[in-house]
From TrEMBL:
Its EC number is 2.7.4.6. This is Nucleoside diphosphate kinase. It comes from Riccia fluitans. InterPro entries: NDK-like_dom, NDK-like_dom_sf, Nucleoside_diP_kinase, Nucleoside_diP_kinase_AS. ATP binds at residues 9, 57, 85, 91, 102, 112. It catalyses: a ribonucleoside 5'-diphosphate + ATP = a ribonucleoside 5'-triphosphate + ADP; a 2'-deoxyribonucleoside 5'-diphosphate + ATP = a 2'-deoxyribonucleoside 5'-triphosphate + ADP.
């Protein structure tokens, strides 16, 4: 089944949004497969966002990600990459719909609370980068109540 990498950024942790964010993914019906709180080294943040290294906001973005602990997670389920992005909302909170995480909890693009992988391919890369130790194999007993097949 499809998996995505979700990270609650330092502002989300500082603002006490961890439980609220996890609840949204749980209640949707997705399965938690990995979870940890950690500080991020500068070189690791640069690696995570390497595709954006030529952007003018790259330095500020890296500083933001290393500014406090983050919550790294792997979530699994049908269409979780795309649906995860829908739950998160548009990159710029000024354009994120109400009801999305960024739409409900953020104002500034440089403090937008949460990251989600943008494709199945980048999800694989990011899960490998953030969880080299591997993730947890388990099957929810609710699976057939949430998925038709
Ligand atoms: P992530 O889930 O964090 O990867 O966001 P995204 O996929 O919605 O956007 P993108 O990957 O293009 O950018 C990564 C992050 O860089 C965003 O979440 C923002 O925090 C930051 N960012 C993107 N564009 C801008 C910008 O124009 N200005 C500033 N200050 N930050 C930006
Ligand atoms: Mg992105």
């Amino acid at each position: 089944p499809e998996q995505t990498f979700i990270m609650i950024k330092p502002d989300g942790v500082q603002r006490g949004l961890v439980a609220e964010i996890i609840a949204r993914f749980e209640r949707k019906g997705f399965t938690l497969r990995g979870l940890k709180l950690q500080n991020v080294q500068q070189s690791f943040a640069e690696k995570h966002y390497e595709d954006l290294s030529s952007k003018p906001f790259f330095r500020g973005l890296v500083q933001y990600i290393v500014s406090g602990p983050v919550v790294a997670m792997v979530w699994e389920g049908k269409g979780v990459v795309s649906t995860g992005r829908t739950i998160i909302g548009a990159t710029n909170p000024a354009q994120s719909a109400p009801g999305t995480i960024r739409g409900d909890y953020a104002i500034d693009i440089g403090r937008n609370v949460i990251h989600g992988s943008d494709s199945v391919e980048s999800a694989k890369k990011e899960i490998h980068l953030w969880f080299p130790e591997g993730i947890v194999q388990w099957t929810s007993s609710l699976h057939s109540w949430i998925n038709e097949q």
